[in-house]
Write a structure and sequence with these properties.
By secondary structure, the protein is mainly beta. The chain is 5% helix and 34% strand. Bound molecules: FE2/S2 (inorganic) cluster. FE2/S2 (inorganic) cluster binds next to loops.
């Protein structure tokens, strides 16, 4: 079953259960960490897509204790990305499984380069992810 998911490029990371945990304001995402429960622990992640978003976004609570926001498009063939269970690396959901650091740098696999990482600022329980 796992291989079928990889062939079809179906990722493990879900959109947030509370769809109201984030909003766009000008060129940035404002995300309420109190409502995005999936991000509570290292290794947790959500994906944001559609609406006014200029890109598909993966937000990961990294093992480094930081929150990372990345363009959710592998630089090989554009598949989505998942965090590894401990939150210390990322992996493409395709059969080829390119891996990246939580900051998006390519570790190995056929991907052509790093994932784009967007700046993340934390103000209390709000994350601000900037596209500029
Ligand atoms: S699409 Fe990511 S390794 Fe192929």
């Amino acid at each position: 079953m796992k291989i079928l998911k990889r062939i079809l490029g179906i990722c493990e990371t879900r959109p947030p259960q509370d769809s109201g945990c984030w909003r766009m304001e000008n060129d940035r995402i404002l995300l309420d960490l109190n409502r995005a429960r999936e991000l509570k622990n290292p290794g947790g992640a959500i994906r944001l897509e559609g609406g006014e978003l200029p890109e598909r976004i993966l937000i990961v609570h990294g093992a480094d204790g930081r929150f990372h926001a990345l363009k959710n498009r592998c630089t090989h063939m554009g598949r989505r990305i998942d965090p590894m269970p401990k939150g210390d690396a990322l992996q493409c959901c395709s059969v080829s499984k390119s891996t990246f650091t939580v900051g998006g740098d390519l570790k190995n696999g056929p991907a052509k380069g790093a994932l784009t990482e967007f700046p993340v600022k934390r103000e209390g329980d709000t994350l601000e992810i900037s596209f500029k």
